[in-house]
Amino acid sequence: MLSTKASLNLFLCFIVSLLIGNRAHAQTQRTDWFEEARFGMFIHWGLYSAAEGLWKGEKLRYLNNYAEWIRYRNRISKEEYGELAKRFVWDEIDPEEWVIQAKEAGMKYIIITTKHHDGVALWDTKVGNYSLPKLSGSKRDVIKEMAEACRKHDMKLGFYYSHWIDWAHPYAWDHNQELTGHVSDKEFEKYWQEKAIPQLRELLTNYGDIAMMWFDMWIPYQESIFKKEQLEQAVALIRELQPRCLINSRLGLPTDAEYVDFQTLGDNVFSADYIEHPWETPGTIAHSWGYSGQETEWKSISQLFESLIGNVSLNGGYTLNIGPRANGDIPYESITRLNEIGKWLERYGESVYGNTGLGLKVDQHDWGKTTYDPKTKNIYLHIFNWPLDNILRVSGITSAPKKIELLLNDGNMKELTFVQNGPLLHIFLPKLATDPYNSIIRLSMSELDLDKEVAAESTFGGFALRNENALHKENLTVQKYDGKNPSFIITKNEKITWKVYFPEKGEYFLDVSAHNPNKENIEIEVSIDEKTIKSQVEPDGKVVAEPNENNYTEEFRDRRAGLLYIQKLGYKTVRFKVGDNKELWLNRIWIAKE
Ligand code: JFZ
């Protein structure tokens, strides 16, 4: 029998867990579709599309020459800029084509710019006259057409709304106010109540279900002209009118699930770590977001794949932007890329939709990335670089796969043989990759046990022990890769350790890549379990980084620290220490068999 106190405690625990459980449940529900989707389309389309990156014969000015910034960059008046609306070719514009294109690319949502920084509403707003319908004289409401096309094709629709910057409104934010003087809080509040809030109300009332509101302020509100209450007012409006609509973090508030449902990273910024809450990277398919006739920086298809898969492997999504022309055309360069990705997703989508990552070390595998579908317990290996020796080395999975299959292009599967040795898995591949960008191997798992600490085995064998896979990382002083020097650990006398699984007994060699900045030799020790190898590192000089420029940098040389006979295969701890309290810059220890 339980005492009264114990049962009361149990009861309280039960209530608390119900509350927590419910809250977690409510949070996941709203963002469920978003975490399932993983891939969406961003569309930047507005008056700037008709300028095409040129104004009166002049290209975009200044450093960040995004085509959609042309009004600001090239100092165009509101009226002259408004004239661009006359260039739109209405009998060719068909938003449904954009939706069909997104669908064919395997995208699950579309976000369109309803009002960008230029302040022009693309829809038929009743708030002021500065809208595409009014400026162009066309009766068409492209946002309404988008909403209808999205409903027809079962596509989620989100609205980009520039709530902070609005170059058309005298009291909204404009970066030039750093020079001309800020608008007052009272003035900004007038903009907020008279333009932004009523426009948001229109967007959330007249266009059916809105899947997300995508705001665009990339600094926290404390550093901006916004007051928290103003942003809370926008949140309250959205929650009232569209309770299932998601809000992104560029509203200016942190991702806390109450105000903000998902985090938007910087433009074309990909995470370096696994992020638990929902997140996405907005990325451009070229350089500009809006259409530019001057565009030359089209991203390669493999780059786009790396971005998408890299994000999914870190629990995130990818919103890829296109900039249609003022006649509605999507540039051919964009179409070819979207279609290639779509074709791939049609066959291999099971490795992307609803997937997350395994939480292994970032860049754990040098051949590609891993994703994981928690519903089916399938692990997917994304091979970007097919190993020459036709052995795929996978590190960190300790439970046994039931079956390993290569997914073939024609829809079939080919079962592959493998050997598992502790956390190291070798999969035997056929000679040829199945896909030119990203070949997929599926591991069917009944249990998922991982070793997230073990150092990964490289392609062709061998273990590279670096800062990235060291244990007790937080105490290490690390110099990041700076374009010249590799990333390295600055160490004096700390014990740096790694966890290594030696796959077989026998002789292994240890090479240390380091720079000795001192004038004299220093002693280093590498220990594997009880055995210690001591060796000397001579002083290092510089190396020419770029020829003919007097451009030099520190040399990091590989030197053999010694040989070690491993009696028994299995886990060992590898330790590194500098002998005599002098600084050493350690890049890597390389352990391999002859
Ligand atoms: C903003 C806009 O200025 C741009 O025109 C486009 O709409 C893009 C999606 O968002 O640009 C940004 C926003 C954030 C960063 C950089 C550019 N950032 O955080 O690095």
- Number of individual domains: 3
SS-based structural class?
alpha+beta
CATH fold-level name of the largest domain: TIM Barrel
Task: Give the low-pLDDT segments.
Answer: 1-27
Question: DSSP strand (E) fraction?
Answer: 25-35%
Write the layout of secondary structure elements.
Elements: H1 4-37, E1 39-43, H2 47-51, E2 54-55, E3 58-59, H3 70-73, H4 78-82, H5 95-104, E4 109-115, H6 132-136, H7 142-152, E5 156-161, H8 177-180, H9 185-205, E6 212-215, H10 228-241, E7 246-247, E8 263-264, E9 279-284, H11 301-312, E10 317-322, H12 332-348, E11 368-373, E12 378-383, E13 391-395, E14 401-407, E15 413-415, E16 418-421, E17 424-428, E18 439-445, E19 463-465, E20 477-479, E21 488-491, E22 496-502, E23 506-515, E24 522-528, E25 531-537, E26 542-546, E27 551-554, E28 557-566, E29 570-578, E30 584-593
Helix pairs in contact: 5-12, 9-10
The site of 4-nitrophenyl 6-deoxy-alpha-L-galactopyranoside has 9 residues, from loops.
Features:
594 residues, alpha+beta, TIM Barrel, Immunoglobulin-like, Jelly Rolls, 8-stranded parallel β-sheet, 6-stranded antiparallel β-sheet, 24% helix, globular, disordered N terminus, binds 4-nitrophenyl 6-deoxy-alpha-L-galactopyranoside
